[in-house]
Design goal:
Elements: H1 23-34, E1 37-38, H2 50-62, H3 75-89, E2 99-102, H4 104-116, E3 122-127, H5 131-139, E4 143-148, E5 150-152, E6 155-157, H6 160-166, E7 171-177, H7 189-202, E8 205-209, E9 235-240, H8 241-245, E10 253-256, H9 259-269, H10 278-287, H11 292-315, E11 319-321, E12 328-332, H12 341-352, E13 354-355, E14 357-358, H13 366-369, E15 372-376, H14 381-391
Parallel strand pairs: 1-13, 3-4, 3-7, 7-8, 8-9
Antiparallel strand pairs: 2-10, 5-6, 9-10, 11-12, 12-15, 14-15
Helix pairs in contact: 1-12, 2-10, 3-10, 4-5, 4-9, 11-14
Length: 396
């Protein structure tokens, strides 16, 4: 019969059975259906610098990148990534052997985990974690071992003793994210030094997601893990253009790592997208050469938006964890008499016309994230002002 299969076995690979449709798709559809302001998914509602967009148009018209680009990425972009790492962090990277361009950071994460993890290997990830981490660990056949960041003194903090205790003889890799999505925590130099010492002591690989490297606020400092003693040869560093230049649809990311690690990740990546984003690679190469003033103005603009939405959430009755980085704010719904983030987020569009994401989707230990919700502030100021105004109705 049509639609029937010859086996009772489920169609979906059992490694992916627990995941289903992402919460972002559900909440974005809810935003469209209700005409709500979407502060759920983390994409800007304005494009990035005009000169970068024009660089992409110029590449298209000049016929650069319209056919398959080189597998590792175009030389211009690999050189620009290496120059960026040197200029910002004093990290010397060979553009020919230590840079790999990917289809956004999401593919970089997938390729790194597929390349470096085998069935039975344990991967430690900081919880709450970006949802693709769990799926990619599962696809690689690894076992996810979450170490929970817990709220204390106004921020979500890593318990270094808990991290150390999580390492076993089966641990292959640490998956670190700083600045951290969704909590906005930026791991300190002291915390990262302890992570580095643990990785060296236990001979662990580290994949570090640093896509929000240019969005750190107040007195926070972004410290690439690869710059710390013993980490250069065991760290895969991931970043992307989407978060830094507000062209998330271009899907241009990259890894930097020692030659052996790059070769391993490239072996997996070539069978995923093979190559991608040809003309956009030329534009991102130009973007990475923008003056320091661009990066500072971008950071300052996002910090002002953080303050605007953070104040609005506080006035609406939430307990707010002001992030030290990223463009997300985590808020506690318990002062509003709520405790179930899923129910709260599903009812919020009807109640006040705003969409958020329940943090519990980023946890293995769902109860740890139950009372927290995430709002994105990478939107126009007028949109954030309107959202803050609507949210005040929760306390009326």
């Amino acid at each position: 019969m049509t639609g029937m299969t010859s086996s009772a076995r489920p169609l979906l690979n059992r490694r992916l059975a627990e995941f289903g449709t992402t919460i972002f798709a559900e909440m974005s559809a809810l935003a469209l259906r209700t005409g709500s302001i979407n502060l759920g998914q983390g994409f800007p509602d304005t494009d990035g610098p005009e000169e970068v967009r024009e660089a992409a148009v110029r590449a298209l018209r000049d016929g650069r990148g319209n056919q398959y680009p080189p597998g590792p990425g175009i030389p211009e972009l690999r050189t620009a990534v290496a120059a960026h790492q040197q200029r910002r962090y004093g990290l010397a990277v060979d553009p020919d052997t230590e840079v790999l361009v990917t289809a956004g950071a999401t593919e970089a994460i997938a390729a790194a985990l597929l390349a470096l993890v085998e069935p039975g290997d344990e991967v430690i990830a900081l919880e709450p974690y970006y949802d693709s981490y769990a799926a990619c660990i599962a696809m690689a056949g690894g076992t996810r071992v979450p170490v929970t960041l817990r709220p204390r003194e106004g921020r979500f903090r890593l318990d270094l003793d808990e991290l150390r205790d999580a390492v076993t003889d089966r641990t292959r890799l640490l998956l670190i994210n700083t600045p951290h999505n969704p909590t906005g925590t930026v791991l300190t130099r002291e915390e990262l030094t302890a992570i580095a010492e643990l990785a060296v002591e236990r001979d662990l690989l580290v994949v570090t997601d640093e896509v929000y490297e240019h969005l750190v606020f107040d007195d926070a400092e972004h410290v690439p893990l690869a710059t710390l003693p013993g980490m250069r040869e065991r760290t895969v560093t991931i970043s992307s253009a989407g978060k830094t230049f507000s062209f998330t649809g271009w899907k241009v990311g990259w890894i930097t790592a020692a030659p052996g690690l790059v070769a391993a990740v490239r072996s997996a990546k070539q069978y995923l997208t093979y190559v991608s984003s040809g003309p956009f690679q030329y534009a991102v190469a130009e973007a990475l050469r923008l003056p320091d003033s661009y990066f500072e103005e971008f950071r300052a603009d996002m910090q002002a938006k953080r303050e605007l939405l953070g104040t609005g959430l506080e006035q609406a009755g939430f307990t707010v964890f002001r992030p030290a980085g990223t463009y997300f704010i985590t808020a506690d719904i318990r002062p509003l008499g709520e405790s179930d983030g899923f129910a709260f987020c599903r009812s919020l569009p009807e109640r006040c016309g705003v969409v958020a994401i329940p943090n519990a989707v980023f946890y293995d230990h769902r109860e740890q994230g139950a009372p927290f919700v995430r709002f994105a502030f990478c939107k126009r100021t007028s949109v954030l002002e309107k959202a803050a105004s609507r949210l005040k109705s929760l306390t009326v």
